[in-house]
Amino acid sequence: MAQVLPMHDDADTLVGDLARAGRKAQRTLARMSDADKARALRSAAASLRASAAPILEANAKDIAAGQANGLSGAMLDRLRLDEERLEGIAAAIENVAGLPDPVGQVIDRSTAPSGLELVRRRIPIGLIGIIYESRPNVTADAAALCLRSGNAALLRGGSEAVHSNRAIMTALVAGLAKEGVPEAAIQLMPTQDREAVGAMLRAAGLIDMIVPRGGKGLVERVQKDARVPVLAHLDGICHTYIHAAADPAMAEEIAVNAKMRRTGICGSLETLLLDANFPASGKVVGALLDAGCELRGDARAQAIDARVRPASANDWDTEYLDAIASVAVVDGMDAALDHIARHSSGHTDAIVTSDDTAAERFLAEVDSAIVMHNASTQFADGGEFGLGAEIGIATGRLHARGPVALEGLTTYKWQVLGTGQARP
Amino acid sequence: MAQVLPMHDDADTLVGDLARAGRKAQRTLARMSDADKARALRSAAASLRASAAPILEANAKDIAAGQANGLSGAMLDRLRLDEERLEGIAAAIENVAGLPDPVGQVIDRSTAPSGLELVRRRIPIGLIGIIYESRPNVTADAAALCLRSGNAALLRGGSEAVHSNRAIMTALVAGLAKEGVPEAAIQLMPTQDREAVGAMLRAAGLIDMIVPRGGKGLVERVQKDARVPVLAHLDGICHTYIHAAADPAMAEEIAVNAKMRRTGICGSLETLLLDANFPASGKVVGALLDAGCELRGDARAQAIDARVRPASANDWDTEYLDAIASVAVVDGMDAALDHIARHSSGHTDAIVTSDDTAAERFLAEVDSAIVMHNASTQFADGGEFGLGAEIGIATGRLHARGPVALEGLTTYKWQVLGTGQARP
């Protein structure tokens, strides 16, 4: 493991060297069987458990430094490891080991008029860069998902977790090596120099895809500067449209759950659209307010309940990640679709209605990664979608959209089987 | 149709205006049924046939200008239209109209433990930018493929074909409009200003994907400067490895066909790898030389036939697109795989062998978009793969690889069908 800082002329050289080593290791990974990769991940989990003492010791250093540097209580909590959290990380690796391996899967198969047999088969993407912030569990989670799908990973964690990340990485690499995984298959950037992040973002052709995991500032920088394809979403400005024909009790339960279950996740409701012909708007608005949600509304929404404050123009484009929502009254489906087309971040938008024709139109015309009918947007999650895990949620239009797990970490090749064909 | 140059402050404003109009039109396209889109394309083909006179007149202007500007005979030939070529363009549009519409296809469907039904459904990508050179048929081909898959297109053709492209576009738009396709669904850049290409390449968030169609200089510039995802390949450095257990007659036929059938296409053989234990190397090398191919080889290849010239280091990384090939003798599969890993451009590589185990290893380990067993690399083509058409061949690792037609012009969304679920 590259714990000793090598002497490099510059960040590009460093990233180039690490990436080439990672790509070489990936060629070995690509040849490993499903069973071999699963065994290696279980060995990594065992090694992590056996290394609890040094990991918790390293984590104590990070916590002490964080306290000295005045990190907030919430950030210290994200950073903190204990026996239970470490067990959770090890169990998550074992969970990934148990997921079906996408590598080698046949997407489709056909026979061309020339007699050539064509097979499209899933293969790993190559080298994945992961850039993340304070949570040290990402080191293990992201590495496990990359390895399970035959990819090498180059990880760059936050400075505040540097000792924890190194200790976790040392344990993982030791466990993996026991089962024949080359050391460079997962690598942690040996420097916290910010310029090294820039070098990763520039490394087109060396790093195949970058996944940023963290706050909006991080994702914004990565999306702005990257020449490498990025899998991410910037905002989760999720709408729930209560259609005229919505069941009132369902509308109330879904709206309150979509906003208040956890206000800080990307799938949480940020804007509630109430159809002008929905007869129970007062009940839904009242339930949100009673649950402790601040509402900022247009004039018609303010008229529903005196506690609704006036919304400013910015509110319709704001991801609060808090117990705050904007609320607008819209005149029917067209107005709802227009509002969503203008303000949605393309993450998750939902309709509540008992009218299946209206639902079908909404599901067809809203152009977001995830569109829902009669469900809380808080379900926007790889685990809830049955993917078994999640490397992130993507709102881009190419490659993979919505919750991305193992399949999104693969690409494919065409295998062409001939019997001596020359092209006429 | 934007034939009149609008007054714009700069290229970015122009591209922004066109892209916004295209995106708006695309929302209409996305709602059109399979049958509607097919009918619109047939109407475009009919309009093209009916507009033969103005199109050929416009083409004559381009030809005259090209002759005055000293264009080569080959370039003039690519530019030239006649009744027969125009009929070919119209027939190609009708062929695309007859292809199955990928939009709305269900990729997969599952039910989550929460009872939510999950459907991944294909949708159009959005607005596709096409940047191309002299062949005016690309105007119609690319527009047809984009429309068939529900995408809007912003086209930027070469200056030398400006009159032809505008006349073709006018005919297409008129035919499409008759069937309800908005005029902005396909747009031709109204200026030949090179800065406008730069503005297209920068238009991330406005243009969803760019497909360059043309020579290496064009593709290189697009790949270097684009902030928008690019679907393309730069080089087609294709290898054919004649394994020790290859059938000699098949090896000879495939090698000669892979190189000499058409030397100028991207799937043509550029490097021949001869296994040191293949007993009939002399026959294969002799057949290529006799067919008029210049061979540049390493020392062992030169020893096979005195007509083989010495290769320089550059030869292993050169796409000749001509009756020239490099040839090396390799010691078995490992050496062949190493050579290909170092020098292949990831387009198409083939093995000729009667040993199925060797073939399987080659097909698994060569990391190119297309890998072939006992077939000529000249088959690397969307038509030959049964895709019915081709917008291009891609060697990138994300989204779509190899020959790309309609499916590669789609993405997907998750449709989530609930019965009132709130997340616990």
Automatic annotation (TrEMBL), chains A, B:
What subcellular compartments does it reside in?
Cytoplasm
Q: What does this protein do?
A: Catalyzes the NADPH-dependent reduction of L-glutamate 5-phosphate into L-glutamate 5-semialdehyde and phosphate. The product spontaneously undergoes cyclization to form 1-pyrroline-5-carboxylate.
Q: Which UniProt keywords apply?
A: Amino-acid biosynthesis, Cytoplasm, NADP, Oxidoreductase, Proline biosynthesis
Entry keyword Kinase = no
Kindly list the residue ranges recorded as spanning the membrane. Answer: none
Report the domain of life of the source organism: Bacteria
What GO annotations for molecular function exist for this entry? glutamate-5-semialdehyde dehydrogenase activity; NADP binding
Q: Which terms does the UniProt entry file under GO BP? A: L-proline biosynthetic process
> What GO CC annotations are associated with the protein?
cytoplasm
The top EC class is oxidoreductase
Family label: Belongs to the gamma-glutamyl phosphate reductase family.
Q: What is its EC number?
A: 1.2.1.41
Q: In which pathway does it act?
A: Amino-acid biosynthesis; L-proline biosynthesis; L-glutamate 5-semialdehyde from L-glutamate: step 2/2
Which reaction does this chain catalyze? L-glutamate 5-semialdehyde + phosphate + NADP(+) = L-glutamyl 5-phosphate + NADPH + H(+)
Against SUPFAM superfamilies, the record matches this protein to: ALDH-like
Predominant place of localization:
cytoplasm
Q: Which residues form the Aldehyde dehydrogenase domain?
A: 15-274
Give the protein's recorded name.
Gamma-glutamyl phosphate reductase
